[in-house]
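User: What would this chain look like folded?
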Amino acid sequence: MNYKLSITFRALAAIFGSYGFAVASSFALVPIFMHVFGCFKADAVYLGTIFSYVFYFVCVIFSFSRSSALLVWRDIAFVSSVFCLIHLMYFRQIQVQK
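Assistant: Here's the prediction, encoded as structure tokens.
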């Protein structure tokens, strides 16, 4: 792949992929903090938002440290989908309890 094109794809992964990754991690961390650590909902949302910034910056650094831009996008998509599954399982559990 062309060097400039690779840097462009990595920059797009760092900007947009990291944003999506941070949003997915924020959504997934709220139920984890509520059920595992016993936090109140407001505290869990606050902590999930704080930790999503950490995940964002880690993902930006990760975007430029992998050997291929394709691997970066693959890994971001995989971990984001795992976070989305955690979030969906939590809301499915709430619907079953009602």
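The two ends are 52 Å apart (CA to CA). If you want, I can go into more detail on any region.
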